[in-house]
């Protein structure tokens, strides 16, 4: 029989995959991969902040991710710097600041690699509640803004003329990504979160003829990657987070071998 | 709704950094009227359109739109990510949810009913313009704003599109604000021309504008010769329709 920790790991991974599919589709459509990376990297700073403030580290991660998303929206609005330059500066300074911060907190011993690459096999009941609560909340919010967000993704100015509150919708979407990043950190770690957003969605594109289909298929491929990656990790004794990502990448490659008329 | 004022811009100025994009521009548009903005590339046409639509706020001047006016907008460029699977039908209803029959009718009105179920990525440049126009019409707009609607369309297709735009005005009585960089193309379809080069150089009936020294100075000799060349097409086209149009204007330009 499988041990409890494996069921918890699987449940946690599936929760993340479920939320990551539809959000990842928008990340792909809006070409925001680098944005996701930046938020994820700021998550490590969130761990340091959480430890420093003596609160739950998940809370610290969520707070810092949300703050970073807000900062990005505001900076992007002022248009002082090209967005990718801005993201490059923020992503790596946040990551480094997190590493430096954690090193300075001598009293606390933290397992750095679990934050960087995830520690899905250590997912507890508390984490499960956090993942499924956060993930389902993110999906519900995304469903609520789905239509205006899609319109703004296709053409922002056209959407504005047609009455979509584009700025509010974009802000909501960025906060949603921050939420999912905070939720997914335990499973794949800050360095690999974006892959779980992007790879399943990109795989789904191959088979989808509508945006909704691509979102749902993205969740499906994410779930397959979680299951396959965990199984591989158990049999081959490889790290779980990276195994999940490798599995997702294999699915992506395999998708191209399947003939399709979806294009 | 014909004749009712829809849009009134007064003394609109906009600067970005050191560049003056718009300088004291006035623009009026009423229902049932086609007004064309012309000017060279970089003259601020698209900027003015965005101010008129409320997408940009001017630094100075006033923008008035009839309260509650429904606007249909066809932007200059539409680039949808290759990764986003979207059918034409879905694209058309993104702004206004509508049953398939209504979508089909709007597409039929613009001559693009045959692409209803095709992926948006697969349609040609001319078809895409017609699809975007259908999306705008689905809103039953009182004001239609078309930013360079004939880009990426061949010459024959351009005339067909302008004919279509004229027909839409006649049928629906909506006001139309059109942007073009070629006066000769829009002459037949337009009621009033506003020639823009950051400020309004000249404005009025297309024939008058084409004779205006300010217009000629703006477009230069090349532009005028260009005009004569295209007029040849124009004559040809209207001969088929049994009309003689702008013959004196052509002499004027060839001189």
UniProtKB/TrEMBL annotation, chain A:
Q: What is this protein called?
A: High-affinity zinc uptake system membrane protein ZnuB
* CDD domains per UniProt: TM_ABC_iron-siderophores_like
Q: Where are the transmembrane segments?
A: 6-27, 59-75, 87-108, 128-146, 167-184, 190-208, 215-234, 240-258
InterPro entries reported for this sequence: ABC_BtuC-like, ABC_TroCD
Coiled coil located at which positions? none
**Superkingdom of this entry's organism?**
Bacteria
Q: Which PANTHER family match?
A: ABC-TRANSPORTER METAL-BINDING PROTEIN, HIGH-AFFINITY ZINC UPTAKE SYSTEM MEMBRANE PROTEIN ZNUB
Q: Could you name the Gene Ontology cellular component terms for this entry? A: ATP-binding cassette (ABC) transporter complex
Per the record, the GO terms for biological process are: response to zinc ion; transmembrane transport; zinc ion transport
Q: Does the keyword Ion transport apply?
A: yes
The principal location of this protein is: membrane
Any idea which UniProt keywords this protein has? Cell inner membrane, Cell membrane, Ion transport, Membrane, Transmembrane, Transmembrane helix, Transport, Zinc, Zinc transport
> Which Pfam families does this entry report, sorted A to Z?
ABC-3
Organism per entry:
Plasticicumulans lactativorans
Membrane protein topology class? Multi-pass membrane protein
| Cellular compartments annotated | Cell inner membrane; Cell membrane
What family is this protein classified in? Belongs to the ABC-3 integral membrane protein family.
Free-text function comment from the UniProt entry: Involved in the high-affinity zinc uptake transport system.
From TrEMBL, chain B:
InterPro entries from the xrefs?
AAA+_ATPase, ABC_transporter-like_ATP-bd, ABC_transporter-like_CS, Metal_Ion_Import_ABC, P-loop_NTPase
Domain spans labelled ABC transporter: 7-222
Q: Which UniProt keywords apply?
A: ATP-binding, Cell membrane, Ion transport, Membrane, Nucleotide-binding, Translocase, Transport, Zinc, Zinc transport
Transport keyword on record: yes
What are the recorded Gene Ontology BP terms?
A: response to zinc ion; zinc ion transport
Query: Which GO MF term does the entry hold, naming one?
Result: ATP hydrolysis activity
Q: What is this protein called?
A: Zinc transport system ATP-binding protein
What is the organism of origin for this protein?
Plasticicumulans lactativorans
């Amino acid at each position: 029989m499988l041990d409890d920790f494996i069921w918890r790991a699987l449940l946690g991974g599936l929760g993340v995959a479920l939320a990551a599919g539809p959000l990842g589709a928008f990340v792909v459509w809006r070409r925001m991969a680098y944005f996701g990376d930046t938020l994820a990297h700021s998550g490590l700073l969130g761990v340091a902040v959480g430890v420093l403030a003596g609160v739950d580290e998940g809370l610290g991660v969520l707070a810092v991710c949300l703050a970073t998303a807000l900062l990005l929206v505001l900076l992007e609005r002022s248009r002082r710097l090209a967005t990718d330059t801005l993201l490059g500066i923020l992503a790596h300074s946040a990551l480094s600041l997190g590493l430096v911060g954690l090193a300075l907190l001598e009293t606390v011993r933290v397992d750095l690699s679990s934050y960087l690459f995830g520690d899905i096999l250590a997912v507890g009941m508390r984490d499960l509640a956090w993942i499924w609560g956060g993930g389902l909340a993110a999906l519900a919010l995304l469903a609520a803004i789905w239509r205006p967000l899609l319109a703004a993704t296709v053409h922002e100015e056209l959407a504005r003329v047609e009455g979509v509150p584009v700025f509010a919708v974009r802000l909501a979407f960025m906060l949603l990504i921050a939420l999912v990043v905070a939720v997914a950190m335990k499973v794949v770690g800050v360095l690999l979160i974006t892959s779980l957003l992007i790879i399943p969605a990109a795989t789904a594109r191959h088979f989808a003829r509508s945006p909704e289909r691509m979102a749902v298929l993205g969740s499906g491929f994410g779930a397959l990657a979680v299951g396959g990656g965990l199984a591989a990790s158990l049999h081959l004794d490889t790290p779980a987070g990276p195994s999940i990502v490798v599995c997702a990448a294999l699915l992506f490659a395999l998708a191209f071998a399947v003939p399709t008329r979806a294009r | 709704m014909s004749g009712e004022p829809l849009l009134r811009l007064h003394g609109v100025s906009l600067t970005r950094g050191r560049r003056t994009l718009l300088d004291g521009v006035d623009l009026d548009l009423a229902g049932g009227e086609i007004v064309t903005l012309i000017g060279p590339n970089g003259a601020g046409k698209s900027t003015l359109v965005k101010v008129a639509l409320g997408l940009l706020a001017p630094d100075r001047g006033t923008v008035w739109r009839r309260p509650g006016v429904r606007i249909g907008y066809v932007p200059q460029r539409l680039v949808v990510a290759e990764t986003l699977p979207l059918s034409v039908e879905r694209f058309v209803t993104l702004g206004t949810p509508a049953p398939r029959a209504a979508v089909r009718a709007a597409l039929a009105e613009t001559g693009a009913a045959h692409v209803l179920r095709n992926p948006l990525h697969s349609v040609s440049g001319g078809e895409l313009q017609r699809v975007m126009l259908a999306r705008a019409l689905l809103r039953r707009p009182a004001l239609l704003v078309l930013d360079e609607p004939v880009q990426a369309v061949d010459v024959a297709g351009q005339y067909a599109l302008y004919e279509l735009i004229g027909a839409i005005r006649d049928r629906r009585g909506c006001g139309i604000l059109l942007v073009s960089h070629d006066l000769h193309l829009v002459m037949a379809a337009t009621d009033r021309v506003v020639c823009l080069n950051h400020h309004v150089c000249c404005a009025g009936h297309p024939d008058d504008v084409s004779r205006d020294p300010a217009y000629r100075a703006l477009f230069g000799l090349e532009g005028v010769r260009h005009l004569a060349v295209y007029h040849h097409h124009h004559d040809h086209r209207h001969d088929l329709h049994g009309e003689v149009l702008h013959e004196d204007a052509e002499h004027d330009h060839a001189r």
